[in-house]
């Protein structure tokens, strides 16, 4: 299979690696090249293609190896692999590099809930030390004065803003943001389907049908085309005999004919995969489970009676009633309210008085929706606020402005003794754009 290498990607890696093997007077060359970008865009695979084309040997380190129950092990591993790779350069007389995949997953700090361990500190300090002194890398407990050969280090990740800032400064790490444009996507996808008879026009049509999907989406859709043949093979063999037929069988591995890789089949398969992605995004079952668990904990803490005991169907009816322009239970006319019994529960008093959304917040919701962003609503009590453990208030997708306003008002009323914040989400980049706290407990302004 003839895979496509982006000229821009090839140029960046070739220049960085070659520059690290040259002695340029008066020039300080960064040892580390950080390749970052969206998930699934083929960063690691493009690197492998470049290494193969240039005849470079690679020493791999996974982001998962950067943590250990024993303090100091990951830092020692990095130093050991660096020294071994420098020895390979000396013995074999060819270019070698160290490749650390998913560095941000192993050494990044994503929020206040991410633990910053001793090993994370030592990994950052070790990489900075190696970048500053690439020919003098020692193992703990021993010292060798012989200078090592300089070994370029390439790291990949999705979000380098989670890394320790001094590590990614320009003198130590050169950054390369990989976001393939349409032509590069067409070239890479064309390489994936190079043996399947798709013309360039069909590849362009496939890419244009799913413009927001990453490279691995198209590779996965190609693999899914074989599902029907494998399903038939299982039925013909018998579900009880599949293991004997596939593993160490005397008949040899099963053979499959080439499936129909027509453009219509690929688009149909791609639409099925897009539907699966949307179901994952819209389900948000964990938020429902967390809300149920939190409500039970609150009930137990208050002796078995919680202030908010409306079933979810009642809450949904209230939201629908408000979105249709009706009057919610918390906005009854004053004449009716005067005939109500005095509310003795302090929580319910706050729910009645604080659930109305301010004009400023309503305008902010309109701006978020007008920009094509999705709205999220999260809440947290005072104890969990200090560790940033927010929980979602939304159990179903918000469909419009009125639905958003009524849902926010319901959350303000239901969690009147908690922090509530509004979240703006970019559905294309699948990231948060803005987080704004719109309610604090008892109207108090927290020092945080």
Sheet with the most strands, sense and barrel status: 5 strands, parallel
Shape: globular
**CATH homologous superfamily label of the domain at 7-177:** P-loop containing nucleotide triphosphate hydrolases
Structural class determined from secondary elements:
alpha/beta
Percent of sequence in beta strands = 5-15%
Beta strands, count: 9
CATH topology of the domain at 7-177: Rossmann fold
For this entry, give a set of tags:
Ribulose 1,5 Bisphosphate Carboxylase/Oxygenase; ATP binding; 448 residues; 12% strand; ATPase_AAA_core; Rossmann fold; globular; single chain; four-stranded antiparallel β-sheet; alpha/beta
Short account of what is shown:
This protein is of the alpha/beta class and 448 residues long. Among the domains are: 7-177, Rossmann fold (3-Layer(aba) Sandwich); 311-329 and 344-443, 2-Layer Sandwich (Ribulose 1,5 Bisphosphate Carboxylase/Oxygenase), CATH 3.30.190.10.
């Amino acid at each position: 299979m003839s895979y496509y290498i982006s000229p821009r990607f090839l140029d960046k890696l070739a220049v960085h690696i070659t520059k690290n093997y040259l002695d340029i007077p008066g020039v300080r060359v960064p040892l580390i090249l950080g390749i970052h970008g969206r998930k699934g865009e083929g960063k690691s695979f493009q690197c492998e293609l470049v290494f193969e084309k240039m005849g470079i040997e690679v020493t791999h380190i996974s982001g998962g190896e950067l943590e250990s129950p024993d303090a100091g092990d990951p830092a020692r591993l990095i130093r050991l692999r660096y020294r071994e790779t420098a020895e390979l350069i000396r013995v074999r007389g060819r270019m070698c590099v160290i490749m650390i995949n998913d560095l941000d997953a192993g050494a990044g700090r994503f929020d206040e809930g991410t633990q910053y361990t001793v090993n994370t500190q030592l990994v950052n300090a070790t990489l900075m030390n190696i970048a500053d002194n690439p020919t003098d890398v020692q193992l703990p407990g021993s010292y060798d004065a012989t200078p090592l050969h300089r070994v370029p280090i390439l790291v990949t990740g999705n979000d380098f803003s989670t890394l320790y800032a001094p590590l990614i400064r320009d003198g130590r790490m050169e950054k390369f943001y990989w976001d393939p444009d349409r032509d590069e996507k067409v070239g890479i996808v064309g390489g994936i389907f190079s043996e399947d008879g798709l013309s360039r026009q069909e590849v362009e049509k496939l890419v244009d049908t799913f413009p927001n999907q990453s490279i691995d989406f198209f590779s996965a859709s190609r693999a899914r085309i074989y599902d029907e043949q494998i399903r038939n093979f299982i039925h013909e063999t018998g579900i009880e005999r599949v293991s004997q037929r596939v593993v160490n069988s005397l008949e040899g591995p099963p053979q499959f004919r080439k499936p129909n890789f027509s453009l219509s089949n690929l688009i149909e398969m791609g639409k099925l995969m897009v539907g699966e992605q949307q179901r994952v995004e819209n389900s948000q079952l964990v938020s429902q489970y967390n809300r149920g668990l939190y409500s039970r904990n609150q009930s137990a803490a208050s002796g078995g009676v919680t202030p908010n005991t409306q079933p979810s169907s009642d809450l949904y009816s209230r939201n629908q009633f408000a979105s249709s322009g009706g009057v919610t239970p918390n906005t009854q006319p004053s004449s009716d309210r005067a005939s109500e019994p005095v509310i003795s529960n302090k929580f319910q008093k706050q729910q009645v008085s604080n659930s109305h959304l301010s004009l400023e917040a309503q305008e902010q919701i309109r701006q978020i929706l007008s920009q094509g962003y999705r709205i999220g609503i999260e809440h947290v009590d005072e104890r969990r606020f200090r560790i940033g453990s927010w929980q979602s208030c939304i159990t179903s997708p918000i469909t419009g402005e009125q639905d958003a306003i009524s849902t926010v008002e319901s959350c303000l009323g239901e969690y009147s003794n908690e922090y509530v914040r509004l979240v703006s989400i970019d559905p294309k980049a699948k990231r948060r754009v803005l987080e704004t706290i719109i309610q604090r407990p008892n109207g108090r302004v927290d020092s945080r």
